[in-house]
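Researcher: Next entry: SPT20 protein (Pitta sordida).
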Amino acid sequence: PSVPRYTNRLINEKSPYLLQHAHNPVDWYPWGQEAFDKAKRENKVIFLSVGYSTCHWCHVMEEESFKSKEIGEIMNKHFVCIKVDREERPDVDRVYMTFVQVTSGGGGWPMSVWLTPDLKPFAGGTYFPPEDGFHRVGFRTVLLRIAEQWKENKDALLQSSQRILEALRLTSEIHVQGQESPPPSKEVMDTCFQQLSKSYDEEYGGFSQSPKFPTPVNLNFLFTYWALHRTTPEGARALQMALHTLKMMAHGGIHDHIGQGFHRYSTDQHWHVPHFEKMLYDQGQLAVMYSRAFQISGDEFFASVARDILLYVSRDLSDQAGGFYSAEDADSYPTTTSREKREGAFCVWTAEELQALLPDPVEGATAGTTLGHVFMQHYGVKQTGNVDPMKDPHQELKGKNVLIARCSPELTAAQFGLEPGRLDALLQECQHRLSTARAQRPRPHLDTKMLAAWNGLMISGFAQAGAALAEQGYVHRAAQAAAFLRTHLFDPASGRLLRSCYRGKDNSVEQSAVPIQGFLEDYVFVIQALFDLYEASLEQGWLEWALQLQHMQDKLFWDPKGFAYFSSEADDPSLLLRLKNDQDGAEPTANSVTVTNLLRAACYSGHMNWVEKAGQILAAFSERLQKIPISLPEMARATAIFHQTLKQVVICGDPQGEDTKEMLHCVRSVFSPNKVLMLADGDSTGFLYRQLPFLASLERKDGKATAYLCSNFTCSLPVTSAQELREMLSP
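Model: Predicted structure:
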């Protein structure tokens, strides 16, 4: 590579996204006091650009505008320019995205916002092309117009920014109304189910026409709805909607059939042509969903998809110290000599490539059949490419094929006169060869930032899959990642989590000069992960740390006046608003997950004030839960768990005993959304016995491992057979 012509101060940052912009001719600053002081001192507008390293349109805007010497000169002359990685600073992103959504009716990344020197927004948008076009004003024009306005009408802009801020403050406030109590769970659950049912795609699964997102929060809701309505037609439909969606996604092009894992979302109704980036938070949540689908259905297909996701993460998103990387990019160079990256280049195939790689004749098949014929038939490959030109506006996928399982294995086998049992082995051989060939291509950019929140979601993925599939290796990987968090993303002196760390030189783990403190979502997803890891491993140390973090979360983020938790701490003067997210999206919102966390924490500690807090969160979101619960399916699910009361499943027994292991396997193999599992091993000095004195009164019956089902620390009659226990857990 040639020596870069420009280098700005982003070269000193750790974020892969900021480093991508370190050689722009723009005088970029990171978010911080140095930039704010410069804007005030020189009385300049701040141009804030927010994105992330695997964002396709962020790359496009950089290539078109931020690498332009001419546009860079305009930016440097008139503005103080700040770059923010939204994954590092979700708090900054949320404040200004709220503004962009309210003022423009849409949002997305890259986000472009213009602020007064005291950080108040007055103009904003997302991607801008560099020059004016038929339908859009160009970035250069916008910059010059705003610079002119600031010069001529500064007072009007300042007044406007103050009015906008006051309006945002009012519209974004979420608090309890009067003496409001948690909404009734039956109405919330039924309304949410009906709203999801109306938006459900009967043919292809999912909850929209296009684009189509995985939305694990919807699937999690449907599994819980089924578990609470097993014998009703509505319960059966909820289960069918979730399982069909998961099946269609696994067959689709959104699933990487060669390299494993799932891409971000599908641009079409059929789950066929994806945006190709792969995000850690999707892998973590989908590993849980496919494990639950296996628990409920017993269908090995779902277990195999869960294993596929965890193989991808273990191989491609894992740091040698134990943490998980954030994402893989959509764009890459098609060949080692290419000058330009293309979306999906790493993942797509021409028919000629496949025929050349899979020329072997297939014994026992119709005469003339090659491996290539079988593979191409099964995965919908066409000679001219299988991508609809309407889904490929930049012609990047012309003549290429995105693999999608178009036929059932039985149908593919029948078409070539094969025994159904042989097809699996043939397809595996093809996948192995294509994986080897693909490894020769230039890989997409890897975002090696490690975030506490997303690592939490992935730990839950490994822990829950380990428990449901009885795979100790997955539980061990979850524990390794939790130990990584405790070493690299936790400050034992203050008891606080940190947001991020980074892969440094020589594969060391590095921290920013000024570490970013953890946000609400970091605490919530890590606490959830530690509870999941305790239930999978029964190591009480994880439980103890989870409860410590829950106390810290209460201290840093709880709103004692309006109830629920703020997304960020109170002591950052650069944040204009403290927000509470009110929408479950690609990830569930932190307040949704924390309701269940608090109920679990109360079961493990006996602190009933956490149950009260859970109810107060539901009360604060009551209006939204009753009107549009489809926007908060994870919180709607938690409403049912709150009203049902969590059942404590206590197994009294020797952790090494076969009878204890059988009981534990029974509990873990059943999907029961309103249970917590604990092992009473007889060690009265252990953490759990100190927290829950009632455990000392529970005994093994006839010297055998014995299960008790407890509610509010009052226990049922003891059970010593796994069959009886299964019946108790599956009403």
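Model: Note for the record: The chain has 27 helices and 21 strands.
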